[in-house]
Amino acid sequence: MLRMSADADIYFTVLCLFRGFTFYKMGNLDNRIANADQLLTQDVEKFCNSVVDLYSNLSKPLLDIVLYIVKLTSAIGAQGPGIMMAYLLISGLFLTRLRRPTGKMTVTEQRYEGEYRYVNSRLITNSEEIAFYNGNMREKQTIHATFKKLVSNILMISTNLLHTLYCQR
């Protein structure tokens, strides 16, 4: 339900971009945003999923913790919940430290995915001109270079993640 509501709000926001040809002006006249279609589709969907996951992953555990604390305090006193809260705090700090490098890597991966999507859409849009001017080899090199950057970044992320997991033990 929350996801559908968030998607509906984003949908109406995107519709507002189509008023006055804002999307087309942004894509064709403004060079600051190269991959507007990806930003409006894939990134908006990921944002909606993240917000819904954040809500569900935050509210249920907090409710569980409050219920456990109330029941444990009434059953065994305040020492049991105190130890449990200390454990949760320490493990939360450890997991936050463990996840910190992956945020920067995810941003880089999203940027490379956007570049790759932009290069492919540019190829589709300009395919007649590319064929007429015999530019297929240049476009092939561009697409391969962009894809190679994306794949090498994904491999670097997986290598760094494994390195982080094994070195922090």
Strand content: under 5%
The SSE order reads: HHHHHHH
Radius of gyration in whole Å, from Cα? 24 Å
Q: Which parts are unreliable, with pLDDT below 50 for 5 consecutive residues or more?
A: none
Shape: elongated
Percentage of helical residues? Answer: over 70%
Outline the biggest β-sheet.
Answer: none
What number is the mean pLDDT?
77
Please provide the count of β strands. Answer: 0
Distance between the termini: 40 Å
Please tally the helical runs, counting DSSP H or I stretches of 4 or more residues. Answer: 7
Entry keywords:
single chain; mainly alpha; transmembrane; 169 residues; 7 helices
Structural account:
The structure is a single chain. Helices cover about 90% and strands about 0% of the residues. The chain has 7 helices and no strands. The mean pLDDT is about 75.
Question: SSE layout and pairings?
Answer:
Layout: H1 2-18, H2 22-28, H3 36-40, H4 42-76, H5 79-125, H6 127-132, H7 136-167
Summary?
This protein is an all-alpha fold and 169 residues long.
